[in-house]
Amino acid sequence: MALIKSVRGFTPKIGENCYLADNCTIIGDVTIGKDCSIWFNAVLRGDVNPIKIGDRVNIQDGTIIHTLYQKSVVEIGNDVSIGHNVTLHGACVKNNALIGMGSTILDNAVVGEGAIVAAGALILANTIIEPNTLWAGVPAKFIKKVDDRQSKELNKKIANGYLMYSSWFKEEDNKE
């Protein structure tokens, strides 16, 4: 069962139809929308500032989400995919964005709607990523514009895929 822990008077709020992997950890001032999935070994640590997550968001295995005390919060829009082993620290990720595996996004960065952050990228603090763009590298740089329709389709496909995957685990949990 997921570890859900209150701290400083804040208890996580989990929306309906969410899947929480057995060993994910959700602490403090965390609000998760509906139809989300939080995967194995993910840690959402809202101990020092809020973490707000929209609907149909998947936060994949090993991801760490945290904030900077009194200086940053995390806001994640709808239909967002956060890849395996991402570090998301005090940043804003808009609707339909895709955050690639192993990337790091630092405080007060903004990932625009439909944007793609490539696997392994480092988004420095205060970076503003325009909507429907691809960024990659260490530190990350603008690579190219992405067709907004294609980006939205890709990101929704991944988000819907994770809804399906989570249903497999819910079915297994109901058998036990």
Number of strands: 20
How far apart are the termini?
13 Å
**Residue share in β-strands:** 35-45%
- Which parts are unreliable, with pLDDT below 50 for 5 consecutive residues or more? none
What does the largest sheet look like? 12 strands, parallel
Describe what is shown at a glance.
By secondary structure, the protein is of the alpha/beta class.
Overview of the molecule:
With 176 residues, the protein is α/β, with parallel strands linked by helices. Helices cover 16% and strands 38% of the residues. It is built from 1 helix and 20 strands. Strands 1, 2, 4, 6, 8, 9, 11, 12, 14, 15, 17 and 18 form a 12-stranded parallel β-sheet that branches.
Features:
alpha/beta; 176 residues; 8-stranded mixed beta sheet; 1 helix
Compile the SSE list and pairings.
Elements: E1 3-5, E2 13-14, E3 19-20, E4 25-32, E5 37-38, E6 43-53, E7 58-59, E8 64-66, E9 74-76, E10 81-82, E11 87-89, E12 92-93, E13 98-99, E14 104-105, E15 110-111, E16 116-117, E17 122-123, E18 128-129, E19 133-137, E20 140-145, H1 148-175
